[in-house]
C-alpha cells in the first residue's frame, strides 16, 4: 500500500493503538486496548511520546520507570511497543496512526485545569478534530 501511495484505510482488519504516559492509570487504558485487540484478533500497538522542545517538561527518571512498567504490561498483553519523540503529542499520534493504518485509537482522559486548556489545548480534541476515518475511544480517568 505504501508503494502505491495509498493513504487511506481499507478496513480489511482492525488495528488498535494505545498512547500512554507515565500516569499510574495508563495500565488500565492498555488493558482496555488489549481487550479490543483480543476481540478482533488484530494488531495492537502501544506508544509513548517523549516531549521535546525548549519549554517542554522532559520525562524524569520516575516517569521512565513508570513507562517501562506500562510497556512490560503491554508486551505481556501482545502489544508492539514504540517510543517516539515530538513537540506536538497529538500530531505524533496522528502520524503514527496514519503510518500503521490504525482503525481505533484508545486514549486516557484526565481533567485539565483552565490554564492548560486555554494555552495548550486538549490532545484528545486535536486528535478527534484531525483524525479521518479512525474510531477514537476515550477512557476517563475518574472512572478508573
Q: What is the succession of H and E elements?
A: EHEHEHEHHE
How far is it from the N-terminal to the C-terminal residue, by CA?
Answer: 39 Å
Total beta strand runs:
5
Provide the helix percentage.
25-40%
The number of helical runs is 5
Describe the protein.
The chain contains 5 helices and 5 strands; from the N terminus they run E-H-E-H-E-H-E-H-H-E. It is of the alpha/beta class and 144 residues long. The model has no long low-confidence stretch (mean pLDDT 88). Helices cover 40% and strands 24% of the residues. Helix 1 (26-40) links the parallel strand 1 (15-20) and strand 2. The protein starts with 14 loop residues before the first strand and ends with a strand. It has helices at residues 26-40, 61-76, 89-100, 114-119, 123-130, and strands at residues 15-20, 43-51, 80-86, 104-109, 135-140. It has a 5-stranded parallel sheet, with helices on both faces. It is globular and about 40 Å long. Helix 3 (89-100) packs parallel to helix 5 (123-130).
Give descriptors for this structure.
144 residues, alpha/beta, five-stranded parallel sheet, 5 helices
Blueprint (SSEs and pairs):
Elements: E1 15-20, H1 26-40, E2 43-51, H2 61-76, E3 80-86, H3 89-100, E4 104-109, H4 114-119, H5 123-130, E5 135-140
Parallel strand pairs: 1-2, 1-4, 2-3, 4-5
Brief overview, please?
By secondary structure, this protein is of the alpha/beta class. It is 40% helix and 24% strand. Strand 2, helix 2 and strand 3 form a beta-alpha-beta unit.
